[in-house]
Design a protein that fits this description.
The chain is of the alpha+beta class. The chain has helices spanning about 15-25, 45-55, 65-80, 90-100, 120-130, 165-170, 180-190, 195-205, 210-215, 240-250; strands at about 5, 10, 35-40, 60-65, 85-90, 105-110, 135-145, 150, 160, 225, 265-270, 280-285, 290-295, 300-325, 330-340, 345-355, 360-375, 380-390. A 7-stranded mixed beta sheet has the order 5-4-3-6-7-11-10. Strands 12, 13, 14, 15, 16, 17 and 18 form a 7-stranded antiparallel beta sheet that branches. The longest helix has 14 residues, at about 120-130. The protein is globular and about 65 Å long.
Length: about 400
């Protein structure tokens, strides 16, 4: 499986397809890439680079690994993309090499790269992005694992590892079930403590809002797009640990953009503060309070009976809902009744089709702002997400 980008080179992780089919359309809701200059910091093998070069005016890639840069150049050339250039620069020289393009860059792209840096390197590259990108440009972060979720999907495939301090993580790494990781770490330890620390960093550790807040300050004034978005839900399914984290952040940091409660961080930032506060899709903490024939299942989704009623009480009124529903049928209709001006009557409904048992998302637009609503589904189904624009 995967996409063959040139003879013998297959994108088995689906990075190129995810970028081309989902992340680029999501980005282009904010900035059209046609004619723009994109600088990709950490271009790797060029799979993502090729997707961005195909739609942008110019693609500039940098990476610290010369073998990866050579492969990226071949992948881009095979695609006939003459608007792309890739450069190798060692760790100690890459910042200066990138800064030479200051003022030329419309989009500074950090795709699946922040997690492979030390904390100091992350802070430096985020600050570098602010200096290099045009004042009216964008900094795009994609596919960075969130250290605050329970499960380390990225590196060790065990719970809580991303939250461990480095010294403890180094000692505990041998317990990971991922054998290629433990073998690599054991080999690095034999070369010395410094090599082990570098290996752990380069394998990848979680990122969170803390690094972004240190560099940008008030994130409400800089984050302009989040990944609770209909265009991304196909590659960013809602997980149970995200529900738990969302509840915690809703209680303690409701000021944060909702992306920082997700398993993967995909966000777009402005290098300068923007006026006003963007209206994001925010997760409603799933609840059965005030509902009829609704219950939690073991995966922390809500089971709604065919004649069930899910009561939704939001923090603020909204005119837009996004509902994630998993029915055991091809077709399903979701509707809501209002408690405000629309009290007792259906204020919005939408139908969705898909394969039975697969999640699908419907967006409901309300004629007037509503804070309390009742949700109905025309057949038994699970609800795995309720989001509202606020």
């Amino acid at each position: 499986m995967g996409t063959e980008l040139m003879p013998g080179v297959v994108d088995t992780d689906g990075r190129h397809a995810a970028a081309a089919d989902h992340l680029i359309p999501w980005i282009e809701q904010v900035v059209r890439l046609g004619g723009k200059t994109v600088l990709e910091y950490g271009c790797g093998l060029g799979f993502v680079s090729r997707a961005f070069a195909a739609v942008s005016g110019r693609l500039i890639g940098f990476d610290i690994d010369p073998d990866s840069v050579a492969m990226a150049g071949a992948v881009l050339a095979h695609g006939g993309l003459g608007n792309a250039e890739v450069h190798h620069a060692p760790v100690e020289e890459i910042a200066a090499a990138v800064e030479a393009f200051a003022g030329e860059v419309d989009v500074f792209l950090l795709y699946a790269v922040l997690e492979h840096m030390s904390v100091a390197e992350r802070l430096d590259v985020l600050a570098l992005a602010r200096r290099v990108v045009r004042r009216d440009g964008m900094i795009v972060v994609c596919e960075a694992p969130n250290r605050l979720v329970d499960w380390d999907h990225h590196t060790t495939q065990m719970p809580f590892f991303s939250q461990l301090p480095e010294d403890l993580a180094l000692r505990y790494a041998r317990h990971a079930p991922r054998r290629e990781f433990t073998a690599s770490m054991a080999e690095a330890e034999r070369r010395g403590a410094g090599e082990a620390r570098t290996a752990l960093t380069r394998w990848g550790r979680g990122v969170s809002y803390h690094e972004f807040e240190l560099v940008f300050g008030d994130l409400r004034r800089h984050v302009i797009a989040c990944n609770y978005d209909p265009l991304l839900m196909g590659v960013r399914p809602v997980l149970s640990d995200e529900h738990r984290l969302a509840r915690t952040l809703e209680e303690w940091r409701p000021d944060l953009p909702p992306v920082f409660g997700r398993d993967w961080l995909d966000l777009i930032l402005s290098p300068v503060a923007v006026p006003g506060l963007p209206a994001f899709i925010r997760p409603w903490p799933l609840s059965t309070v005030g509902s009829d024939r609704v219950a939690f299942n073991p995966g922390e989704w809500l089971e709604v009976a065919r004649d069930g009623r899910l009561h939704i009480e939001l923090r603020v009124p909204t005119r837009e809902l996004m509902i994630g529903v998993v029915p055991d049928a091809r077709d399903v209709e979701v509707s809501v009744r209002g408690w405000g001006r629309g009290r007792g009557r259906t204020v919005s409904a939408a139908a969705a089709s898909g394969r039975p048992g697969d999640p699908r998302f419907v967006t409901l637009h309300l004629p007037s702002p509503e804070r309390e609503l009742d949700l109905f589904i025309d057949r038994e189904a699970w609800v795995n997400f309720v989001g509202y624009r606020a």
